Amino acid sequence: NFTHASFGGEGYRNLSFTGVTFIQAADFSSADFNCYTSFSRATFYQGEADFSEANFEKGGDFYETQFLNEAQFRKVKFGDRANFRKAVFNDRSRFYEACFNAGAGFGEAQFNYGADFRSTIFKGVFSGHGACFNGKSDFADVTFEEEASFQDANFNGWIYFRGATFKSPAKFVRAIFTGIVNFGESTFNSTS
Fold first, then answer.
1. Where does residue 123 rank: exposed (0-12), middle (13-18), buried (19+ CB within 10 A)?
2. pLDDT band at 68 (very low <50, low <70, confident <90, very high)
3. What is the DSSP string of 41-61?
4. Most CB within 10 Å of its CB: which of 41, 43, 67, 183?
5. pLDDT per residue over 145-168, tens digit each?
6. What are the respective helix, strand and coil percentages of the chain, to the nearest 5?
7. Please, are residues 92 and 69 in contact by the beta-carbon 8 Å criterion?
8. Would you call 141 helix, strand, or coil by DSSP?
9. Which of 149, 145, 100 is nearest to 120 (CA)?
10. What are 47's strand-pairing partners?
11. Whether 190 contacts 168, CB under 8 Å
């Protein structure tokens, strides 16, 4: 249990949980990561991985991370780039009301039980290139301030972008939608 823990600070540049296997639930809710933090290739085996309301001040790396149970990132804040490229979410993943202040990479990520990004703000470029969304995926009321790319993404199931705001180009080139899609009341403010 790392609830409300503070990592890094003066003199710390990086924190690494690279390749770590968390056998039981891992609770990092409300933790402050004051240095660049990597969970790259980590596995969250049993129980929930909870990063709700955590603050990744210098960014975070979840490259090829395996979430075998629920992954909670509700109201998480990334002060710098967030990398979830090739991450696998086997159960529910919740990112609602999160704030990504720089780029957010979800390229080739797999959401096997849907994804909840409701009311999330992406202030930097969003890359979902080649991502796979299975089940119900909810992007309602999401704001993309920079380019949002879902190029070559697969949406297998119910996908909801209702009320989403795209302030820069939105790219869905070669994306595949096999279920119900809803872009009602969305705003596209740039040539997409």
1. middle
2. very high
3. T-EE-SS-EE-TT-EETT-EE
4. 67
5. 999 999 999 999 999 999 999 999
6. 0, 40, 60
7. no
8. coil
9. 100
10. none
11. yes
Tokens of 157: 């199931």
**Closest listed residue to residue 128, CA positions, set 91, 162, 166:** 166
Question: In this structure, are strands 148-149 and 170-171 parallel, antiparallel, or unpaired?
Answer: parallel
Task: Report the DSSP pairing between strands 115-116 and 132-134.
Answer: unpaired
pTM of the entire predicted model: 0.94
Q: How far apart are CA 80 and CA 38, in angstroms?
A: 13
- Could you identify the residue written with the tokens 């960014």? 59
Q: Which residue has the tokens 């969003």?
A: 126
- Give the whole-angstrom CA distance, residue 173 versus residue 177: 12
Three-class SS of residue 187?
strand
9-65: pLDDT as tens digits: 777 778 999 999 999 999 999 999 999 999 999 999 988 999 999 999 999 999 999
